[in-house]
Amino acid sequence: MPASDEIQVRIAALEDEQAIIRLMHRYCHTADQGGDFGAIFTDDGVFDVTMADGRKIRRYEGLPAIREYWRTRETPPGRFDKHLVLSPVVTVDGDRARAVSDFVVLQDTADRVLVTYGRYHDTLVRQDGAWRLCERRSTVETLAR
To answer: What pTM, to 2 d.p., does this model score?
Structure first.
């Protein structure tokens, strides 16, 4: 492969990784501020939350169910939460990708700030030139205290 072709392949890989990380950040902003998860999940997307010990917390299948869950959550100015995604490791394979990252959620309550943290295990696909989550498995390692 000529050097110029190799550079183009490497640039494309970096652009894919950056687009996926940007999507992960957009998820956090949408979760905190409200907005449309249609630009984040595929139509058949899955959002699954489980405790580290295997206990199920919630699972939503399909974009309508995911939208409904997030629609019912209070957002500013009624409630201020901060979802943070940390240390993402992204592996791209054509139009599919996997990402593993840590998360922290800060929740403002009347008398204190609660902290929850864990790991995201994401499966992503490229649809119509844009990356979308087709599955987000959230493993909660500690509940807010």
So the answer is: 0.92
